[in-house]
From TrEMBL:
Residues of the signal peptide: none
Taxon lineage: Eukaryota, Metazoa, Chordata, Craniata, Vertebrata
The protein, known as: NUP210 Ig-like domain-containing protein
Domain NUP210 Ig-like stretches: 111-163
This protein's GO CC annotations: nuclear pore
One Pfam short name: Ig_NUP210_14th
Length: 163
C-alpha cells in the first residue's frame, strides 16, 4: 500500500501470513534415484499438518515404471527410465503447495562397503587379528553409473567370514 507524501491517512493494521515451504523430510527434494523393484516412502514436512496428494505426471518409459499410492509409497517396477512425480499439500486455509520431483529408475553399478564399527588399540598400532567376539557393522551404499547415490535400492548384500 502506498500513501502520497503529506497525507494524514494512517495504516491501522496489516495482516500478513507466512507459510512454510513444503520439502521432503529426507534426502533431496527435487530428485529421487531408485533401483528396479525398490520402494521409497515419501515424507514431507506437511504430512502431519494437512492432506497431501501424490500423482504421477508423466513417465518416459510409459505406464508401470513407478507407481505411488495414497500414503506416498513410491514403488519401482522392472524397467529403467524417468518419471515426474507431483506432490500437492492442500492446507486448510486454502493455500496449495506443489512440489515436482524427478524420479529416475536405474540399475546399480557399484556398491561401496565401509565399517561403522570402532576398534581401538593401545598406542594406535595395528592389530594382528580382530578380537574374538567383536561385532563388526558394515554399511553398503549403492551408486549408479554417474556416481550418484541411490535413495532406494533392492540390492542384497551378503558377508561371508573367512577363518
Amino acid at each position: 500500500m502506498q500513501l502520497a507524501v503529506g497525507t494524514s491517512r494512517s495504516i491501522s493494521s496489516l495482516l500478513s501470513k507466512v507459510y512454510q515451504e513444503m520439502q521432503l523430510a529426507v534426502g533431496t527434494s527435487r530428485s529421487i534415484l531408485m533401483s528396479p523393484y525398490s520402494h521409497y516412502a515419501l515424507q514431507s514436512n506437511k504430512d502431519a499438518i494437512c492432506p497431501v496428494r501424490y500423482a504421477l505426471c508423466q513417465c518416459v518409459k510409459g505406464e508401470g515404471l513407478v507407481t505411488v499410492d495414497s500414503q506416498g509409497v513410491l514403488r519401482a517396477g522392472p524397467d529403467t527410465g524417468s518419471a515426474l512425480l507431483e506432490v500437492i499439500a492442500m492446507e486448510t486455509c486454502g493455500v496449495n503447495q506443489t512440489l515436482l520431483i524427478s524420479v529416475r529408475v536405474s540399475p546399480v553399478w557399484f556398491v561401496r562397503l565401509f565399517s561403522v564399527s570402532s576398534l581401538y588399540s593401545v598406542g594406535g598400532g595395528g592389530l594382528p587379528a580382530f578380537p574374538l567376539g567383536w561385532t563388526i557393522r558394515v554399511r553398503a551404499l549403492c551408486y549408479d553409473n554417474l556416481g550418484q547415490q541411490f535413495n532406494a535400492h533392492n540390492t542384497l548384500t551378503h558377508i561371508t567370514t573367512n577363518r
